[in-house]
Specification:
Mean pLDDT of chain A: 86
Shape of chain B: extended
Oligomer: heterodimer
CATH architecture of the largest domain in chain A: Orthogonal Bundle
Distance between the termini of chain A: 47 Å
Radius of gyration of chain B: 25 Å
Largest sheet of chain A: none
Structural class of chain B: mainly alpha
Number of strands of chain B: 0
Radius of gyration of chain A: 19 Å
Order of helices and strands of chain A: HHHHHHHH
Low-confidence stretches of chain A: none
Mean pLDDT of chain B: 81
Helix content of chain A: over 70%
Number of domains of chain A: 2
CATH topology of the largest domain in chain A: Rna Polymerase Sigma Factor, Chain: A
CATH class of the largest domain in chain A: Mainly Alpha
Largest sheet of chain B: none
Number of strands of chain A: 0
Strand content of chain A: under 5%
Number of domains of chain B: 2
Low-confidence stretches of chain B: 93-102, 146-150
Distance between the termini of chain B: 30 Å
Helix content of chain B: over 70%
Number of helices of chain A: 8
């Protein structure tokens, strides 16, 4: 492998790990009230588990890495809590499975309400991809967390220190509105 | 604690919930039919549902693409490499690796490089942490009475404690972590936006982390009005860094 490739690989891995660390720390501390040092241990062990699963081909190609990784951390957190003899009456509604195929079907049904041609639809998708890959704070955390990682709004509120679930929902509402405005602006420039 | 309390019609939040529940497959068959029927009669809700569907599809497409890259990166790495990455991001100190045999000339060369490097590094360190000390007290934020007249007392107490740690330069790792959690979900409308941002930047400087201090200051400048003390001082500090 060329040096540039190695550097790029390392960079991607670093970026992924850094994003997951922020999220994992917020999730484990918000949901399980674990110490930072416990979170570090869990994170490191879970990362190796994920690595081994990928290397050994045990992870299905459709599995969302981030969702899967948090799931591993969650199981390790439960193990640790049991090991410490702590009570496990934790409200944690993290999904154990993903329902991608059902989501796709419903998304397509909603998008079909617009009746766009394939070409227009493809251009609109490109605009959306551009916007979602550069979402500003805190929208990136909330929208990716809720729609991609499958966290509930209650969990997101705990993770990111919102006063209540409703408060986080208000921010999410604003984020969707901002997304809509940005999408409309770009669409107008391109399609008018 | 972040409070996003600007009034939003609860009906709109309810609509958001139903759209999300539909997309995530959390409605019963009967509720689904009702929801789709409602979209026919409510053009605003229909538009919102379509926008949300676009957003979710976009997140999925971008996420899947990123996942493909990450899988490739994992496959090209070794277990040791992965372990190192996790230690770096969690800032945990890597275990010391015993040096078995080092030739004398390598040791001498390394020492020379080290001395020069440490000299430069120490000067940088002094400059960065010195700025943290110098600017620590320049803006008198009054947290106890709420910066712009509101804010819960628990929240204020927690922040006061964190700001005291920044001022005294104690427990910086945890303090930065706590402040960062608040800061990342903080918007310019939040009452504690300015004091959190300012103290986080100072904490980073005291921790000799110029890069993160700059990032925070840039966000702080962008989120504050020109002419406000925080805005002026943040620009001044950024230039000095």
């Amino acid at each position: 492998m060329a040096i540039v490739d190695i550097q790029q690989t390392q960079q991607k891995l670093n970026q992924f790990a850094a994003e997951q660390w922020d999220k994992t720390l917020a999730y484990l501390q918000g949901t399980f009230s674990l110490s930072r040092s416990d979170c570090e241990d869990i994170f490191q062990e879970a990362f190796i588990v994920l690595y081994n699963m990928i290397i050994e081909g045990e992870l299905t190609l459709t599995a969302k890495l981030s969702t899967y990784f948090i799931g591993i951390c969650r199981n390790k957190a439960y193990e640790r809590m049991r090991g410490m003899g702590k009570e496990l009456n934790i409200i944690d509604d993290y999904p154990s499975t993903t329902k991608d195929e059902y989501e796709d079907e419903r998304i397509d049904r909603l998008l079909a309400l617009e009746d766009d041609t394939e070409q227009i639809e493809a251009r609109k998708e490109a605009i959306v991809r551009e916007i979602v890959s550069k979402l500003p704070h805190p929208c990136d955390k909330i929208l990716w967390g809720f729609y991609r990682d499958g966290f509930s709004m209650e969990t997101i509120a705990k993770m990111y220190n919102y006063a209540s679930e409703n408060s986080a929902k208000v921010t999410k509402h604003r984020c969707v509105e901002k997304f809509k405005t940005r999408f409309m602006e770009i669409s107008k420039q391109l399609f008018d | 604690m972040i409070k996003d309390t600007n009034n939003i019609d609860p009906k709109l939040l309810e609509e958001d919930d139903r759209i999300s529940a539909y997309i995530k497959g959390q409605l019963s068959a009967e509720e689904e039919q009702l929801f789709l029927k409602e979209l026919e009669d409510n053009p605003e809700m229909k538009e919102k549902a379509i926008v949300t569907a676009r957003l979710v599809k976009g997140l999925k497409q971008v996420g899947d693409e990123q996942d493909k890259d990450i899988r490739g990166a994992f496959l090209a790495s070794s277990e040791q490499g992965v372990e190192t990455v996790t230690k770096q991001v969690t800032r945990q100190r890597a275990k010391t690796i015993p040096i078995r045999k080092v030739s004398t000339w390598i040791a001498v060369a390394a020492s020379v490089v080290c001395i020069v490097w440490l000299g430069i590094d120490y000067t940088n360190y002094k400059h960065t942490t010195g700025l943290g000390e110098e600017y620590s007290d320049v803006i008198p934020f009054d947290i106890s009475s709420g910066v712009r007249g509101s804010g819960s007392s628990d929240e204020a107490k927690k922040l006061e404690k964190l700001f005291a740690s920044v001022k005294n330069g104690v427990d910086l790792d945890n303090t930065i972590h706590e402040l960062l959690l608040c800061w990342e979900s903080c918007s310019p409308e939040d009452i504690y936006f300015e004091p959190i941002g300012w103290n986080l930047a100072i904490a980073y400087l005291k921790d000799n982390n110029k890069k993160e201090a700059k990032n925070v200051l840039i966000k702080l400048i962008a989120g504050t009005e020109e002419g406000r003390a925080t805005n002026t001082k943040a620009i001044e500090l950024l230039k000095k860094i």
